[in-house]
Design a protein that fits this description.
With 239 residues, the protein is α+β, with helices and mostly antiparallel strands. The protein has six helices and eight strands; from the N terminus they run αββββαβααβαββα.
């Protein structure tokens, strides 16, 4: 399987029906703008993808992913790329000369590792990065973080993040139970079953990091939450 799907560039967007619906494309654009509003991203930083589930006879799952180097306030639904999760090949691309996110191979590896993951949000949030530059993971001290991230978010040692090997190590460190991983000196990658929830993971981890840093300034020992020790009523919706 190729490590660099961004080099396999085929423009099928005008010759066949899209594998992604307009609603799915609009959802990705919407949450890109939301990450900027929430100050999780800036300029052209970060990226978002959405799994496109298909039957085995249709070539396996694909993903819809943001382009590289495009300002979010100029991003349009037709600017997104469709990439095969089986081969890493670009299946659909816009005709504006852009390339898919440079971290496309990393998203592919996370989807391959976690079949439950339906969406990925990569952010450059400030307080998460404060932990990342120290090489520290983030303990869950707020309810939203433990509910969405589901545990302590580990920190991956710094390295350049555009290779499939990096993606495999990142996915391995995140594991099967936690829904986020810090990239040292580079931000956060958050996952969940769908895009609204993946976005909430990114928001929850950033707010948790902010509060945890504030608690350190006050002194004392923060109370760390354990998901297994929380009595969650059966059927209770996530906040």
């Amino acid at each position: 399987m190729p490590d660099h799907p961004i080099h396999q560039h085929h423009d099928l967007s005008r010759t066949a029906p899209s594998l992604a619906t307009l609603e799915q494309r609009e959802e990705v654009v919407y949450y890109c703008l939301e990450t900027v509003k929430a100050q999780l991203n800036f300029n052209t930083q970060g990226n978002i993808s959405l799994r496109l589930r298909r039957g085995g006879d249709e070539g396996g799952d694909a993903m819809l992913i943001t382009p590289s180097g495009t300002r979010y306030d100029r991003l349009r639904p037709e600017h997104l790329f469709v990439v095969s999760l089986e081969t890493g090949e670009v299946l659909e691309s816009p005709r504006n000369g852009t390339m898919p996110s440079t971290e496309t191979p990393v998203h592919v590896e996370h989807y391959r590792r976690r079949p439950d993951v339906g969406a990925i949000v990569h952010t450059e949030s400030t307080h998460v990065n404060a932990f990342g530059i120290l090489g520290e993971g983030i303990d869950p001290v707020l309810l939203n973080m433990i509910l969405y991230a589901r545990g302590r978010v580990p920190c991956m040692p710094f390295e350049f993040s555009t290779q499939a090997d990096f993606g495999r190590r990142s996915a391995e460190l995140m594991g099967e139970d936690v829904n986020a991983v810090i990239w040292a000196n580079h931000g956060l990658l958050a996952v969940h079953v769908d895009l609204p929830c993946a976005y909430r993971v990114a928001c929850a981890v950033e707010e948790n990091a902010k509060v945890l840093l504030a608690s350190r300034a006050l002194g004392g020992t923060p109370r760390v939450l354990d998901l297994a020790a929380i009595d969650i009523p059966e059927g209770a919706p996530l906040p």
